[in-house]
Design a protein that fits this description.
The chain is an alpha+beta fold. The chain has 3 helices and 6 strands, in the order H-E-E-H-E-E-H-E-E. The strands form 2 sheets. Strands 2-1-6-5 form a 4-stranded antiparallel beta sheet.
């Protein structure tokens, strides 16, 4: 007879989160929840392997000219979506700047092609942001 260990809600939540982050599938059976539809004569189901997730492209960090705390990072999700957006490069600076990135810019950045864009003019100056 095997000895079962009870998990606290916190232990289960932590284990679940770690499993999701590592791509492992968690299956909760009826027996784990107190119910049971298993009978010795029932055939054992064949587990279906989880598909291997496609790794996401890494986020891309731009170099900000004359930098004083600004940070320009385009996430992998933004590059995958490839839809124009305004990138906030405030970072730790005391004032904001934005950089307008088109769908073509995002596709080029994702393909490691050099893209340089001028930021908005705020606080009487602007910056050039270069990716790749």
């Amino acid at each position: 007879m095997s000895q079962e260990k009870s998990l606290t809600r916190r232990d289960f939540t932590v284990a679940s989160a770690l499993a999701m982050l590592s791509g492992v599938v968690i299956t909760i059976s009826e027996t784990a929840c107190g119910g049971s539809s298993y009978s010795p004569s029932s055939p054992t189901p064949t587990p279906t392997p989880a598909p291997t997730p496609t790794p996401a492209a890494a986020d891309k960090t731009g170099v900000v000219s004359s930098n004083h705390g600004h940070a320009a990072v385009v996430t992998a999700a933004r590059m995958t979506a490839a839809q124009a957006f305004s990138l906030d490069i405030t970072g730790t600076a005391s004032h904001p700047h934005t950089v307008e990135l088109s769908a073509a810019d995002l596709t080029a950045i994702a393909a490691n092609t050099r893209v340089s864009k001028e930021s908005s003019t705020d606080n009487s100056h602007s910056h050039t942001v270069t990716f790749n």
